[in-house]
# Entry
Amino acid sequence: MKRYIHYLRVMGLALVATMMVGCGISDERAHTLKVYNWGDYIDEDLIAEFEEWYEEQTGEPVSIIYQTFDINEVMLAKIENGHADFDVVCPSEYIIERMMRGEMLQPILTPEFEQEINSKNINYFDCVSPYIKEQFSLLEAPEGQDPNDYSVGYMWGTTGILYNAKYVTEEEAMSWDLMFDKRLQDKIFVKDAFRDVYSPILVYAKTLEKREKGELGADEMLDIETIRELMYDSSDESIALVESYLKRMKELVAGWEADFGKEMMTQEKAWINLMWSGDAVWAIEEATEVGVDLAYTVPEEGSIVWFDGWVIPKYAVNTRAARYFINFMCKPENAIRNMDATGYVSVVTNEEVLESINSPEDYDEAIDLSYLFVHADGSPIEGADSVFTDPVLYPCRTVINRCAVMHDSGDRTDKMLEMWSRVKGDNLSTGMLVGIIIFFSGMLIWGIARKIAAYRKHRKHMKRRHKYAKQ
# Structure
């Protein structure tokens, strides 16, 4: 009943938006879809293809205005404070939580829309992995609301350590101890993303704390339930604990980076980088071409499994096109193209996707991905327990079992941000200054290199499509 009442409330908002179209919003805006996504996070050819596909399906024209952001909180501020009328947005899991708490979202798969796409046999939402839906159901939401009604996964991955194998061994990289190794001074870069740093360092600090108290053995790790509980922990005590560790780490860190850490690694200006798995793969591939051996691990103490997902903000105008767009992105062939273009991993996991990533000729060891590639009834897709693919992009069950989803800290977020500011300070280290200078002076060169890389990925995709066409 509560969910029904909430649906009525949200539908009322949609009705108001529709009335606004008639009373002042131009007809052009009514046929415009405004998409707000992370940078470099889509196969851009799909934008124009969606416009054509949408008109074929509905008989209505649509034109996409596509904008990008680099920080979750910047995106949220535009919608929360500026009431920006984006129709589709792609926030991370903890921001989805915050938006749901603030009643800032509209439902995506409404009964009417589901009936419409089922009648046309174009319902691709069922292609999203049940594992991903289960993880989204763990997001905190107002009573009576299911996060899967208000968000649909897009990409996912882990947070870990990218390292240079010439200077760091795999065994060393299997522990967060590495971030405090003094021999790596000025060779460490860290993501300038406080939540992605706070959570794994808290898990690491609590592991050491319990070992010191004798609650864990010298080689024992926290269980997954404890790690999940720590994802909610933003107490003063824990914030102070993480701050003490980060201040120790800061003495060794060359810089806090939003994007240029990948280049620093490929150029061997840095030897380790706390970063996301998708960025790690990009760096590993680029480094291989210049003879640099990079690798990635998720430390044994535990870390984060993160998710980005599509949502429809309450200020959206063209909600019908928004729902079609999200559905279009769940189409398996489009999910494959987005993975090829971005290097990240789609939440879409049907037989077609499994076949596209299985490459026995490229990988020596098979991975058990039966937790991820399953049918709607929960049974594994045939062959999912033995997949030859990139273990960085597709972590095995053992890795996943030590990773948990981050959660919004609510009113405690400001306390965490204050801590983050104190740790980083206003002054830049020499290493960071050098890194920034190198980065910006080389932007043009790397821009060209990225275009070449994108062209190579496009060729790879076309070869793959040709391969399947021949089959």
